[in-house]
Amino acid sequence: MPEEMRALLKKGCKYGQGFYFSKALPAGQTVALLEVGVKPILMA
After folding, report:
1. pTM for the whole structure
2. Each residue of 8-19: pLDDT tens digit?
């Protein structure tokens, strides 16, 4: 786990975004993810 992510988790951050979590997606796939909901994934 990158140092930056570890520091943010330690400070209580529950959300993250960016290439570390997912590559860029076409608009249609993004809409599909938002429609079904996105579950948080925390790596420990």
Report:
1. 0.45
2. 889 998 777 778
